[in-house]
Structure formats: structure tokens, C-alpha cells
Amino acid sequence: MAQSTPTPTSLDGVTSLYRRFRPNRFAELRGQDHVVRALQGAVKNDRVSHAYLFSGPRGTGKTTTARILAKALNCENPVEGDACDKCASCIAITRGSSLDVTELDAASNNGVDDIREITAGAWHGTPGRWKVYIFDEVHQLTKAAAAALLKTLEEPPSHVVFVLATTDPHKVLPTIRSRTQHLEFRLIGGETLSSLLHDVEKAAGLKVDDSTIDAAVRLARGSARDALSALDQLIATGSVNDSQPVFEEMFGALASNDAVAALKALAVLTREGWDPEQLAESFAAEIRQVFLLLAAPEVADAVDAERERLSVWGSKLGLARTVRVLETLGKAMREMKSAPEKIVMLEIALVRLVKPELDISVEALAERVEKLEYGAPRNAPVSPPAPVPLLRPIGSTTKSAPIVVPEPVLEKVEKVVEEKLELNLSDVAERFTQRVVPRTARSAQLLLSDAQVVALDGYRLTIALPSEEMRANTEHIAQGLRSAMDHEFKTTFQIDWIVDVNVAKSAPTPEPVDAKKKTQIQSDEYEPPGDAVVVDSVPGHLISEMFPGAEEIS
Ligand SMILES: [Zn+2]
After folding, report:
1. What are the start-end ranges of the E strands in 10-98?
2. Ligand 1 centroid to 283 CA: how many Å?
3. Which of 106, 107, 287, 458 has its CA 20 to 30 A from that of 503?
């Protein structure tokens, strides 16, 4: 792509670099070559679509590109489909005074009236000129507004181009999406941003050292807008505010499988004032670079010292683990969106990461296999299982190290674990009958056709069978049942079998009652485990899995 120097659009020293060096022609756009090719080609060949969907992360140039498209369409002296940026039309669009361009921020003007007003105007164009409507954050339109927009898109006026910009194309109505040509904007690579900043530095007559440019590139995370803002900060304050959470301790904890160190590193970062979502996002961004450096170094954005640092962590973590960290963080970030205590989701994620045995995901298994094959650990020493307050070793004979996990953290972990335990009995019973049993072998299905899930206590499930003979046969089906259960519930239950002659095919399914209450009632009714046979000896309680050799003290 052309790497010409951006033209300053304003010469006063006050306007931000981002505004001054905003690209004004297709030739000045960086890092979105595929988009430029498509649009410039369309203008040149007179095949412009009536509706475009520009999707991509913020700061990657969506609305800027829309304006350039408007310029190119209305330019008095276009060159190869690009704007001249000198004619009256181009200048008017740059100044924001052109009547041919209408911008609407759908985040704030998302009502049906806003859309109606605009689309009504679309029919009154100036002959020979293109009207371009730019709807930013179009996924935020109300339903009625989106419907009104859709109506216009179904029969667009011939001289009108709609550019719908969004950071979240999946939230745009499919009916709208299907009427647009979709162009995806990508995060801009480190080298492209770096060369942009160097060019701007020269054009603006600034003197900036390379480490500052690197810092600005790092802060920008693929956004040209953020890169220029960081450089602006330098001009204003003499230094870039490069305050970023530092994850070295966290990387170290993961590399050495140290749960305590990981939670401590998180606690330190939280004390520094970083919020959990910010931390998860920043860490995920670094891990992503680690992953790329391992899997496809040529597409990794990290440069110079940063690249070196992350490569070192990559070699310590290995690919399988890095993938799992990325997956687990992604999952935690999704869960955080709705979790009242976001930090807890992050804590759980970290503990899962250093204790792959807690995790039955494919990635976790892959990592365990890799460990077996290459011999664990590949790197730093593994710390001994952490002793924990509120827990004591069963029949404790070994003297354990001093307690280091901060108590509030543990309490939160336990709280979440408890919440996770609140699986609903009727739900489990229904899934057992309808999804688990059909997944087992024929013999197991026969045996289980009369089985009834009668109690649930954490990950301990009590299943009643009508006869002693049947119960005696459960050991033959245990393995198949277990894998069917694991598949369905993504967790391991301990199953207690009991005999209850009242259990028959016609027996009513348990009513949806509060899980805990129900469990109590059921325990009373089914007087277990004197004669209960425990077939599945895999321990189910998450806490004891997290901290082996420990049990709860009430
Ligand atoms: Zn022009």
C-alpha cells in the first residue's frame, strides 16, 4: 500500500495530531489495503455499492474511510478513483461543511425519528452528486430505527451510499447485513503504526526517540487513533504516560504453575488500581502476542524489546499452554461481563490455569499430554501444593509451608465454587434421563431405564434403582456412564447408587425445588449411604481438587 506522508489538514499547533494527520485520501490510509483496493476500484469503475458495512475495532479508520469514499465520489479531479483533496468538494468534506456527507452516531441518535428524518432527506439529492450517509455504531440503533433503515436499504435512492460502521457486526440485523457489502477493518500491525508515527514525527517537525515511538505503538494496540493520541501526549507532557499493567510476576507464576503466586500477582495489580476487565484484556493482548510469536512470528505486532520479552515467555510457556491461557482468559472475559464480582472470575481462571487437572477442556488435556510427553515441568520449579486457611490436610502428617493465600481471595473463590455447585436437581435429573442415558451403551440404557436421580449435593449425585440386582450391576456400566456424564455436564460427578423399590418408570420426576432444600429433603427420604455403593471414585468437590489432601473444616 502507498506509504505517502499524510498531509496536515490544519496548521495550528493546538489541533491534535490525530485530527491533523487524519488520512484524506485512499493513498494515505494505512493498514487496510484490502478495503482501499475494494473501494478505490469501485469508484474508479463506477461500481459503488449502495450500502457498505464497515466492521472492525475502534480506531482502525472506519469513519475516516467513509469520508474518503465520499470525497472520491464527489471529487472534481479524481485520480484513479482516489480524491484529489484539493478541490472545493474535497475541502468542504474535510472541513465537515459539505452537504453531501451526513454523519450520525447511532449510539446517541438511535431512534426511529432520527433515521426517518435522514432517510427522507436521502431522496432530495443534488443532481450529479453522491450523498453519503455514515452511521457510526450502527448496531446500537433501536429495533424500530433499524427497521426504518432496512426499508430504505431495500430501495436505495440511486445517488446515495450508506456506510454503516460498527465494532460489532454480529449485532447488526442479518436482514440489514445481507443488503450491504461487508468490509472488515483490521487492527493495524506494529510496523505499520511505527512507520506512520515516524512519518508524522517528520511531517510535524517533532523530535521523538525510538523508544517513545515503540511505547506509543504498544499503547495503541493496533489503533492508529490511539497511536497518534499517545504521541500527542508526548508533545503535551514531554513523556508518554506509558503506565501499563506489568505482567512479569503473572507470567512467572504461570510458567512455574504457582497458584499462590498467580493470585498474589493479581492482588498486587488490583491494588495498583487496575480493574479486572482491564487486566484481563491487557493480559490477553500480551498472551496473544506470545501466541503469535510462537505460532506465526511474522504476523506478531510486538516490536523490539517487547518482542524479545514476550518471546522469552513464549519459550517458557510452550504453545499448548499459551493457547489454553488465551482460551481461559477469553472465557473469563465473557463471564466477567455478567458477573457481579468480576475479580473472582479472573481468580478462578488463574487457578484453573495453574491446575490443569481442574479443567477437562480439550486444551487442558492437550497440555497435560504435552507435559507427559516432554516431562513436566519444562521450566521453572513447581511449587508444592499450597496449604490454605479454612482447610487442613486430612490426617495431616506432613508439615506444610506457611499460609500465603490472602483470605478474602479464598473466600471469594469458595463463594463462586459454591455458586457453581448449585446445579438444580430437576435440571440434572432431566438431563440425565434425556441426554446422558441415551448416550450410554444399550446394556446401560436397559439398566438405567428405571433409574431416577433423587438427590444432588454439590457434585455428588444419588441415583435410585428399583432392585438390589440392578444396583449390583452398576459397576459394569460405570465407565460408560461416567464418560456420558462428563460429556453432558463438563464436570465429574460422584455417583452414589441406592435401592428404592418405589422407583419405577412411572415415578414422578423431581419437582423444581431449590437445590439445597431439595437435597435435604431427599437425604431424609433416602437415608443413604450405609448401603450406597460408590462406583465413581473421582473426587468431585472443587475445593479439594484445587488443594489436594485437604478437607473443609466447618
Ligand atoms: Zn477533490
Report:
1. 51-55
2. 44
3. 458
In a domain, 98, yes or no: yes
> Is residue 6 included in any domain, yes or no?
no
Q: Is 378 left (phi over 0), alpha (psi -120 to 50) or beta?
A: alpha
**80 CA distance to ligand 1 centroid (A)?**
12
Residue 429 CA to ligand 1 center (angstroms) comes to 70
No. of helices (H) and no. of strands (E), the chain: 23, 11
If you measure from the C-alpha of residue 387 to the centroid of ligand 1, how many angstroms do you get, rounded to a whole number?
Answer: 71
Shared domain check, 437 and 359: no
Distance (Å, rounded) from C-alpha 97 to C-alpha 259? 59
Edge-to-edge strands, sheet with 494-499: 452-457, 460-465, 494-499, 533-534
Residues 496 and 369 in one domain: no
CA 198 to ligand 1 center in whole angstroms:
27
Give the C-alpha separation, 512 to 507, whole Å: 15
**274, β-bridge pairs:** none
Could you list the residue range(s) of the whole structural domain that residue 161 is in? 32-184
pLDDT tens, residue by residue, 482-491: 888 877 777 7
Do 343 and 433 fall within a single domain? no
Residues with CB under 5 A from ligand 1 (ion): 75, 83-84, 87, 90
State the pLDDT confidence band at 135, using cuts at 50, 70 and 90: very high
Q: Identify the pLDDT of residue 162.
A: 95
Distance 87 CA to ligand 1 centre (A): 4
Give yes or no for residue 237 having a pLDDT over 70.
no
Q: How far is CA 443 from the centre of its chain?
A: 43
**End residue of a domain, out of 165, 184, 203:** 184
**323 Cβ contact partners less than 8 Å away, ≥ 6 residues apart:** 291, 363, 366
Gap from CA of 25 to ligand 1 centroid (Å): 9
DSSP 434: I
Task: Tell me: do 279 and 350 sit in the same domain.
Answer: yes
Domain final residue, candidates 353, 374, 395: 374
Tell me whether residue 333 is in a domain.
yes
Task: State whether 130 and 53 are in the same domain.
Answer: yes
